[in-house]
Amino acid sequence: MDTCSDLSLVNTASFGRLQCSTCGFARTFEIGEISRGDKRDCPACGAKNTFGEARYWLRPPGFAHPVDVEEVTSPDDMPETSYATRAKLTMQTPSDDSKWTQVNERVRVLKECKHLLVSNTGPKRDGYSYCVKCGRVEASSDPTPLLAAPHRKPYPDDRQPTCEGAGTTRHIVLGTDFITDIALFSMDVATPLRLRPGQYPTDVSLRTVSEALAKAVSQLLEIEPGELMAEYRPSLTPEGREGLKAEIFLYDTLPGGAGFASQLVECGTELFQRALRLVEACPENCDASCYRCLRSFNNKFEHRLLDRHVAAELLEYLLTGTLPEFDEQRLRNSTSLLYRDLSRQGDRTVNFEADVEVTVEGVGKVEVPILAVKNTGERFAIALSGALTNDYPAAPSIRKLREKTSSIAVIVINELLVRGNLPAATREVRQFLSA
Questions:
Q1: Cα-flanking dihedrals φ and ψ of residue 278, to 5°?
Q2: What single-letter DSSP state applies at residue 34?
């Protein structure tokens, strides 16, 4: 574990940090504005008591390997590592419409030069322990802590190599902030589409769109991929809390800005169109994402959140205002997964059939993806929704069935839930059937 060996770190402990456990929004506060351990309602997503717990936030001036610890060279002996968060934008969503440039009816953009916040919460997100006397740092989750007792100083000191200890502050978050150019895109959606903060489908769609936009910018401006990055957050407005408005900001990774993000205000439509082409046309025609389309070393920790089909649905809506039909082949594949799992775990009280054509009075013939028939004679049509249209059947015939009849109850399961957590999807269906 790297340790800080600069005593000036003591003087940087003038900030506390809060981060929402639901949507990830974060910001720092002056000590005195908050108390350690505080929890608040999140100003971004509105979730109750999720903004916190408050922790001291330090900006380290530098790091050095402790002189008394041998460097680790074997992969088998590597310590548990931690990584910094993506950059967080702490500014409020501007309410002055004159500051925004309208891209279309659903997307608008503004350019700013603002602070971005980067933090490292340590292994297991438990923070770091810091000796205020010698500057040594260790993970607070370390099962054999050293700092509470006398310990070696992390730097050479022939006269007094041992620190007496008894000056440890625990659960500190390390971080930094920097000013750079940003392009903030605000995106409006309408029912049945929702971008509810903190929900898995929202994270998948906005993470994928962010990566697609960042890649599109590198092509558009002919710059290296690492020179500009993208992140998302809820809009800090009532609409953002309801899932009707979200924001993606693209920022220059060079502190102070390099002028790349500020150029995007004038090419918003072209940028979103290029991003849509990227997610629609993978050279490998991958099922969700691959290294030929969206994956890279820089986003290796978010590969499970990259799904080009979900991003294509959102991008097409933002560009055209119409909700496209979700990929039919993928819906069939996911429906088949759910059907096989339901049949495998079935019992004698319910019979499941796939791709059944039923005739319903007032509706006519309807193709039901999965038909469940209970011993009592009750019938249920089980169908999938798109990732961002929860409780809204992807198949038009099933939507019509739900509107026109009560003789067959309709159960709608999110397609991403089937792909990402099949046991939970099956359990949700069974709860409906047993209600």
A1: -65, -45
A2: B
Q: Is the CB of residue 342 less than 8 Å from the CB of residue 426?
A: yes
Angle value at C-alpha 202, between 330 and 403, nearest 5 degrees? 65
- Residues 412, 370, single domain; the answer is yes
What percent of the chain clears pLDDT 70, i.e. is strictly above it? Answer: 94
Model confidence pLDDT, tens digit, residues 180-205: 999 999 999 998 999 999 999 999 99
Q: Which DSSP helix (H) or strand (E) runs through 179?
A: strand 168-188
User: Do strands 379-385 and 408-414 pair parallel, antiparallel, or not at all (unpaired)?
Assistant: parallel
Q: Which residues does 38 contact at the CB level (< 8 Å), separation at least 6?
A: 16, 18, 52, 53, 54
* Residue 22 belongs to a domain: yes
Residue 15 pairs in a beta bridge with 30, 57
Residues 161 and 206 in one domain: no
358 beta partners: 366
User: 290 and 283 in contact (C-beta within 8 Å)?
Assistant: no
How far is it, in rounded angstroms, from Cα 119 to Cα 83? Answer: 9
H or E stretch at 416: helix 415-420
- Phi/psi region, residue 166 (left: phi>0; alpha: psi -120 to 50; beta: rest), is left
Q: Provide the number of structural domains found in the chain.
A: 3
Asked whether 186 and 247 are in contact (CB, 8 A), the reply is yes
Query: Are residues 231 and 309 both part of a single domain?
Result: yes
Beta carbons of 369 and 186 less than 8 angstroms apart: no
Q: Is residue 62 part of a domain?
A: yes
Residue 7: is its pLDDT beyond 50?
A: no
Residue 78 DSSP SS3: coil
CB atoms within 10 A of CB 300: 8
Element (H, E) at 158: none
Average pLDDT score over the chain: 88
Q: Whose CA is closest to 205, among 311, 120, 288?
A: 311
Instruction: Fill in the DSSP letter of residue 265.
Output: G
Beta strands 350-360 and 245-252, pairing class: unpaired
Say if residue 311 is in the same domain as residue 430: no
* pTM of the model as a whole: 0.88
**CA–CA separation, 320 and 121 (whole Å):** 41
Q: Which domain holds residue 137?
A: 7-84+121-174
pLDDT digits (tens, 9 = 90+) for 102-124: 999 999 999 999 999 999 988 88
Residue 258 neighbours by CB under 8 Å, 6+ apart: 181, 227, 252
